[in-house]
Design brief:
0% helix
Length: 122
């Protein structure tokens, strides 16, 4: 089972990026998927999640209204569209999955991708 996060890069404040989390070895429509991020010297924090059905999409308050999580089950991929980026969004972004949970606790997720770096310059 593997989750591959990609799409990170360097962007100016106010810009946009779309992250992808591609799954192999599992059928992603059987899993809830979340994005977390970790900035240097800080703990890993919840960003957003999407339930298996796609009906539930909780967001961290810090990204609500700017980020959007979605899934394309045909492509076995979950996306995180990030708009109006701020320097404080700079972090390594990770995707994670769990068949029964889509909350904010990183310890509850079974599978993790390797992370993709997002750097937002001011």
């Amino acid at each position: 089972v593997q989750l591959q996060a990609s799409g990170g890069g360097l962007v100016q404040a106010g810009g946009s990026l779309r992250l992808s989390c591609a799954a192999s070895g599992l059928t992603i429509n059987m899993y809830n998927v979340a994005w977390f991020r970790q900035a240097p010297g800080k703990e890993r924090e919840f960003v957003a999640a999407i339930s298996r059905s796609g009906d539930n999409t909780p967001y961290a308050d810090s990204v609500k209204g700017r980020f959007r999580i979605s899934r394309d089950n045909a492509k076995n991929t979950v996306y995180l569209q990030m708009n109006s980026l701020k320097p404080e969004d700079t972090a390594v972004y990770y995707c994670a999955s769990n068949p029964f949970y889509y909350g904010t606790n990183p310890s509850s997720y079974n599978y993790w991708g390797q992370g993709t770096l997002v750097t937002v310059s001011s």
